[in-house]
Amino acid sequence: MRINTLLGEFLVERRLITPDQLKKALADQKESKEPLGQVLIRHGAIEETDLRIALSEQLGVSFLSGTQLKPRSDQRLKECIPMEFALQHQVLPLERKGRMLKVAMGRSPDVIFLDNLRKSTGYDILIVLSTETELKRAIDLYYSNTDLQEVLSSSEVSAATVDYNPVEKDENKMDLGATVAEAGKGPVVRLVDLMMKKALDDRASDIHIEPYVDRLTIRYRVDGVLFELPPPPRELHNAVVSRIKILSKMDIAEKRIPQDGSFSLQYQGRKVDVRVSTIPIVHGEKVVLRILDKRMDLLDMSLLGLEPDQLSLFEVALKRPYGLIFATGPTGSGKSTTLYAALNKRLSPEVNILTIEDPIEYQLTGINQVQVKPDIGLTFASGLRAFLRQDPDVILVGEVRDLETAEICIRASLTGHLVLSTLHTNDALTAVTRLIDIGVPPYLVAGSLGLVAAQRLIRLLCKHCKEPYKPEAKVRDLYKIKAETVYKPKGCDKCQNIGYWGRMALYEVLPIDEDMRSLITKDCNLTQLREIQKAKKYENMFQNGMRKVERGLTTLDEVLSVAYE
């Protein structure tokens, strides 16, 4: 009772509660036998965070917020406190220093419990406090994830690197047998396997392996943003790269020039393709692995981010027997996925679909796909010429890069074929001027172009933790936000405390109608074309993004990062 009284008096002194609130809580605590702090929280007298901060001040220990509850990933802390014990007693190991083990707790420490913990771990215990809610989330996150660093810090990996020298005295000479043997060792194989599994679990699209003079960096790109992982030993670089080269059927002896390769794997019952690229940099070879998920649900046009009116315009263009459809945007904006979803919409035994791509990203049954091979003369242009003799109904061209390819695409679209392709332009209307700039006559552009869809990818808010807020009036007026309440990211265990989960495209879908064709043929003035776009109320990407902000799908900052009014 004395401890409760001291805590209550301390809270009253700090003006966090009133004497009357303390009196009621103490009376309730006699009946419920709960800790005083829990009673005060249940009464609504104090927030849990404020209570723990005050308690940490009273005890003279540190308080850590949820984002600070990050156990050291290189110290095998799960060996000190197993998962069952941590969950039962709500205690999280954070780091070891000499004979001291720092742990986080959510409640005021019990002397007997701390003594038992000291005996069971063999360490002196240094405690810090956090809220019970945030501590539970951190414990669940830490113990539920397979930690890549656990493998890196294990004794077998350490032993595997003892006799391994990552610096070749002569880059042109290497012991190939030793390199292959090193790449095939159990710890290295396990490390690469776990690295791939973690990337797939985290929904990463790319893995970057980058050597520097004194360290090796591994970064994953998740939802368009790169995140750095705990670094493996620098000595593992050559072995890891060699293992990946072996999987990708690349030349492990060649380190002086860039190489490309690929391999496939099975993950949760589906096939995943991995494209591998290496380049020589100052301190070794950098490797980038592009993960291509073959999930067919990604090829549903209704799930890409198109609004119902935009989807309707796209479907009308796809149903036409001829014409040219372009998806535009920078590299990595989802253009290929959009076009594959469009092809999936037209997929039928009655339709002959041919594609020429570099590279082939999705292999679709029922579609004839050709890989560009410039070294033997199979280019976009030569492949397209051959396609015209293959009785096609629908043709997909990976990218229009030059006048020759553009002219063949246009000729195909004017002779009764539906042609889909991509261009690198900032918005839909710029695709018109880009074609004219590379040498296509305006009358051919006007006669062939059916629809242009510009797009960018944005992150979606995590639906489990997004927080509502009311934007300031000046912000609402500036960006024409109609909704009173919009949302912002918070972070939870579901989204790994990022606040975002998944991505969606912003679209600007522009059908080329008679008014635009007439203007393109006469003058092709971008300003006048934009006036027609505005008059016909075809949404630009910014307006499309605002719709998604008002529906609580994403944030204003995400939209502003890729589009503007």
Overview of the structural elements:
The chain has 565 residues and is of the alpha/beta class. Helices cover 39% and strands 22% of the residues. The protein contains 23 helices and 18 strands. The strands form 4 sheets. Strands 12-11-13-14-10-15-18 form a 7-stranded mixed β-sheet, sandwiched between helices. Strands 6-5-4-9-8-7 form a 6-stranded antiparallel β-sheet, covered by helices on one side. Strands 1-2-3 form a 3-stranded mixed β-sheet. Helix 16 crosses helix 18 (442-448). It starts with a helix and ends in a 5-residue tail after the last helix. 35% of the residues are buried. Mean pLDDT is 84; it is low at 1-5 and 155-176.
Topology at a glance:
Elements: H1 2-13, H2 19-32, H3 36-43, H4 48-59, H5 83-89, E1 91-97, E2 100-105, H6 111-121, E3 124-129, H7 132-144, H8 148-152, H9 155-160, H10 176-183, H11 186-201, E4 204-211, E5 216-222, E6 225-228, H12 237-247, E7 259-267, E8 270-281, E9 284-293, H13 308-319, E10 323-328, H14 335-346, E11 353-357, E12 368-371, H15 380-387, E13 394-397, H16 403-414, E14 418-423, H17 430-437, H18 442-448, E15 449-461, E16 467-469, H19 473-478, E17 486-488, E18 500-511, H20 514-522, H21 526-535, H22 541-550, H23 556-560
Parallel strand pairs: 2-3, 10-14, 10-15, 11-12, 11-13, 13-14
Antiparallel strand pairs: 1-2, 4-5, 4-9, 5-6, 7-8, 8-9, 15-18, 16-17
